[in-house]
Amino acid sequence: xxxxxxxxxxxxxxxxxxxxxxxxxxxxxxxxxxxxxxxxxxxxxxxxxxxxxxxxxxxxxxxxxxxxxxxxxxxxxxxxxxxxxxxxxxxxxxxxxxxxxxxxxxxxxxxxxxxxxxxxxxxxxxxxxxxxxxxxxxxxxxxxxxxxxxxxxxxxxxxxxxxxxxxxxxxxxxxxxxxxxxxxxxxxxxxxxxxxxxxxxxxxxxxxxxxxxxxxxxxxxxxxxxxxxxxxxxxxxxxxxxxxxxxxxxxxxxxxxxxxxxxxxxxxxxxxxxxxxxxxxxxxxxxxxxxxxxxxxxxxxxxxxxxxxxxxxxxxxxxxxxxxxxxxxxxxxxxxxxxxxxxxxxxxxxxxxxxxxxxxxxxxxxxxxxxxxxxxxxxxxxxxxxxxxxxxxxxxxxxxxxxxxxxxxxxxxxxxxxxxxxxxxxxxxxxxxxxxxx
Length: 438
Hints:
The protein has 438 residues and is of the alpha+beta class. The protein has helices at residues 2-41, 140-144, 259-271, 273-276, 299-307, 317-320, 343-349, and strands at residues 42-45, 48-51, 57-65, 76-79, 87-89, 95-98, 101-105, 110-113, 116-119, 126-134, 138-139, 173-180, 183-190, 196-199, 202-209, 215-222, 236-237, 252-253, 256-257, 286-287, 321-322, 368-376, 381-386, 397-401, 407-408, 412-415, 420-421, 433-434. It folds into two domains: 48-135, no CATH class; 140-434, no CATH class. Strands 12, 13, 14, 15, 16, 26 and 28 form a seven-stranded mixed sheet that branches. Strands 3, 4, 5, 6, 7 and 10 form a six-stranded mixed sheet that branches.
């Protein structure tokens, strides 16, 4: 009996070992099969991957727009292959349904990129109808929608005509809301890294989205994106070689150009006019607020130095807002839609008079002119600039002698609101929003 028990126990042990080995191989085989199935049967969606079986997606109907703009059903044709580029999903026409339920589901994520359509399937038996529209790029109005607008709790100045701006901003990346002569304006403050635009071979930073929908840019490099040094400017100039009159703080004195205006016009004619002139907005203009508050100082002085209350609104726009001829706003004196940043815009961006700021995006390590006059002492004119190191206050806003100081020239332009940008841009220096000629 003892021997028989041992044999029985040995048989049981052997059986258990065999079963364990079989189970192990079975698990390995199943897992390998599942892994293979997942690789073969997974569909990538916008937010990750969804494992699905063939019946999960029963129908994928694709329709391509024939001609741009018309979204009537008759302007779409059924296609079997996704086009390689040049289209975008129409979210208003595209939808899915679940088998047995004809309710159109429009909360399912769909995206077209790199010649592929991505669908976020949520239930089995999904039928999707995807409409692709012709895409010539992102418009300036749509570009604003890519950003999140910050609030005063984030560090933005109050939403007012002339809010108190008493501090610098050198680290945060903010998009703030303000008011200009046209309505609501949205401006960058601090140290944003997503406000880069490329036009041909030239790099620019978005200063703000103007109230009329146009986009205001400041020059920042040719051939590469520059944040410091001479690459951020097109050259150097006095504001005006003439002196001994308060009129010489003006961008134009009657019909006579200031010295710096001649530099800007020459550069524009050579580099932008023929290819990109049709993309420029001449109505937003450039404010040269030359209204005097007394015999010495001009209004920007009171706002920036005395009250620290900058504004995007241009005092007496009929004389001080330089716009192109043939328009409906401003003084309509310009032939070319090009100018300079204002000291108020530099203040909203993060600068402050006579206070260092090496962190905000307008600091370049060099002195350069704004378009805003400061004072006239009876002999010389003073015009504000963004400072390199005046009084060891790097990056601050400072009044320079307009005829004696030769400073950097950084062009400012306004792009029309319907300007198109190529697909794929992220607004960074390495992947900027790139202007499309379509």
